[in-house]
Specification:
heterodimer, A: 285 residues, mainly alpha, globular, disordered C terminus, B: 296 residues
Amino acid sequence: MIEKNIHFEKNDSWKKIIGIYVILIIFCAITLYPLLNVLSVALRPGDQLFSTSLRIIPADATLDNFRKALFETDLLIWLKNSLIVSSLTAIIGVFISITAGYAFSRFSFWGRKVGMMTFLVTQMFPAPMLLLPMFIILVKLKLMNSFLGLLIPYVAVSVPFSVWMLKGYFDTIPKSLEESAYIDGCKVWQVMYKIVLPVSTPALAITGLFSFMTAWSEFVIARIILTSAEKLTLPVGLVNLQGSFSAEWGTYSAAALITSVPVIILFISLSRYLVGGLTVGGVKE
Amino acid sequence: MSGKGRLVGKNTPYLFIAPAFIVMAIMVFYPLGYGFWLSLTNMSLRTFKNPGFVGLQNYIRVFQDPEVLSTFIRTIIWTFVNVFFHVTIGLFLAILLNRKLPGKSILRVFLIIPWAMPQYIAALTWKGMFNQNFGAINLMLGWFGIENLPWLSDPQLTFYAAIITNIWLGFPFMMMISLGGLQSISADLYEAADIDGASPWRKFKDITLPLLKPTLTPAIILGTIWTFNMLNIIIILAGGYGNKETQILVTDVYRLAFNFYRYGFAAAYSVLIFAFLLIFSIIYVKKSNIFKEESI
């Protein structure tokens, strides 16, 4: 009984604790199953793709689908394209958001409240409302089927959220840190660069991750803008690959695992910052 | 502070905001204005170069279209069912996780997997699982003697499949938000309630819910807007532009614009969707009072 009090809430009965574990494990099974299902299909040999077995690891598991995905499809090209577009989105997006977030956090100026509200309200626009004019503008600028044509909307989509996240984080940094630097005669951008940014690494990482993920997972805009095979990003490529439910199913599953597992690992390793990060950025003024 | 006042010029804040503002102006504010103008024209693939001004004609047509109402009702059902389950499942799991529990961090990691999985991969994976003959869903339903359901060929069932997929995708976000909110509630309050002999339901209703409100309300507003505007799941599950009976408002606009090239009409349609969302958000924010004491 003494041991129980250390590890569990003191008022919980054993029945309640077991009940809680059972419920949580059932939900974990629900969240994990689709991933295990992809794994199972990816490991099936070609002649067993259409199997009615629900075993996770098939009897004669093979890595053949992974070989096919890597070398017989354009997966590596899509990976490269997505890496370029997503990294640039994250880098440019975070750079642009740092200065704006800092200004909203530290300076009082005319138009501050309205400016912040404007950034927040942009989250409310339905995608097609912006998508259609964006599309027509990009056609007129002759940016269709180019990475720049993807990059501009992606950065625009990620900036408002990043500004709010960073502003929320900067608010938590004591101003006294900067004041001594001002007294020493530093200029404002030096203070920001030398003092504020180094202590903001977790926030910069999370903001970068969100911008990266926005671009990495974006399908609807990419599908409209990209037309030639060598320019496709992962989402468009993979959706085309799965297309109709056919013999490509095993290859698709292997490709999906290659694509999503690194992202899932990255996301999960940063997840402990997420609880604090989201609360600070979203709720605190 | 005087040092700061001297060194930070009057225009510095504006210079700092300028880059973000310019990006937003090019890709958000200008397109908004442009979209509004488009809604007053008859632009289509045919009239792309020289669209004519038609006034409010597109708006009148949206209201006259008999199918818009049924799509609107479907969108409301879609949004309500999804957000309801996102919040209830998310809050329920957060309450279970917000206690001393060995192994809880690993359980939490498994529970946020749907959020970490790229959305389109999740949608494609569920599409595979909904396959009529070989998908896991029908194989499992088979255990209960339910015959193979044509999830992806019957529009009504496709819509249910999309709802199931979207509920799966969305509850981890609400769980994380709720968990953050729960951690800020002082344990003393519950101890005091215990001394008064309050039931678990009373504690939930009178302590947990009111104190979670400032955290949950913005999340619910955002979640509603995201769900209302969710394109990916329906487009991917329904296989492209899909069937009329699977559409929600935004996928219908997407279809009208990029499949039927009716740009002017689609623009008017999306202006109306935006107006609806804006009114919803204003009423919700006003009713829930969350921004009242804040300085923004």
